[in-house]
Amino acid sequence: MTEQQRDVIIVGSGPAGYTAALYLARAGYKPLVIAGALTPGGQLMNTTEVENFPGFIDGIMGPELMESMQKQAEKFGAEILLDDVVSVDLDGEVKTVTVDQGDTYSAKAVVITTGAEYRKLGVPGEVEYSGRGVSYCATCDGFFFRNKPIVVIGGGDSAFEEADFLSRFGSSVTLIHRRDEFRASKIMVDRARANEKITFRTNAVVESVNGNDSGAQSVTLRDTVTGETSEMPAEGVFVAIGHEPSSKFLNGAVKTDDHGYILVDGASTRTNVPGVFAAGDVVDSVYRQAISSAGMGCRAALDAQAYLTSLEEA
């Protein structure tokens, strides 16, 4: 089935997608937002309290923030479709996107805000014990590891946030990082050091996740300085080592860098394909913050609006 042509389609959701939808809807374009089948709202749907989004003095829960942004966009005329885009044809003035259910939608402009996915360790046992000890979302699975030993792998803000959250449940939480310095902000590091339930294992990498029929039981660590290996009890193994941009579905339709992040023209959100724009974590490999994604979503909407206006004038 092919729907009637629209002015603009937004592929993805989260702060970038919903902000772009809000701006385009208020401009009268009634955008279609293909928000994803399983995780509409992006990574913030798996985040607890967000303390650094402007305007919320006491913080706000991630899912609440995303649901509010979605409803605000819908209030002004955005349409939300809970499905995944599996292929695109972005050549020519009319762009088409096909979703997992088989339907095809067309538009004059497309804004891509598909974000990024959790990066995997790629070690033995990770796949085998995924969902049975290995997790990529503390807020989703922390409750299941009450009074059990937990490890968190990573050195950025996300890893420290997860360690702090998991300390409410685990008998212990050990943060494992391959170096002796952390990428995380000082306030996050200081907060973790002040938490008596959190300990650190630096200069160490996970070589394997070990377990039995009941799930993960331990991790094998290798010291990056001495090369020695050791085993650490861990019934909860939480991986927080970064993200991969969700751009594979494009299949080369727009230019990306070597890591898959979509390339845009300078400070704009214009891709190398006329009428196609990109914003949020699928573009941004540096800041990766909700507020910067929202700002980029605003810019994408304004860039798309300028493009649509140019078509009307032509």
N- to C-terminal distance = 30 Å
**Average pLDDT, to the nearest integer?**
94
Q: Say how many strands there are.
A: 19
CATH class of the largest domain: Alpha Beta
Strand-residue fraction? 25-35%
The largest pleated sheet is described as:
7 strands, mixed
Helix-strand string = EHEEEHEEEEEEHEHEHEEEEEEEH
Number of helices: 6
Class computed from helices, strands and strand pairing = alpha/beta
Q: By CATH's scheme, which homologous superfamily of the largest domain applies? A: FAD/NAD(P)-binding domain
Low-confidence stretches: none
**CATH architecture of the largest domain, please?**
3-Layer(bba) Sandwich
**Shape estimate:** elongated
Q: What's the number of structural domains?
A: 2
- Supply Rg: 21 Å
CATH topology of the largest domain, by name, is: FAD/NAD(P)-binding domain
Oligomer: single chain
Give the proportion of residues in helices. Answer: 10-25%
Keywords: Disulfide bond, FAD, Flavoprotein, NADP, Oxidoreductase, Redox-active center
EC number: 1.8.1.9
GO molecular function: thioredoxin-disulfide reductase (NADPH) activity
InterPro entries: FAD/NAD-bd_sf, FAD/NAD-binding_dom, Ferredoxin-NADP_redctase_2, Pyr_nucl-diS_OxRdtase_2_AS, Thioredox_Rdtase
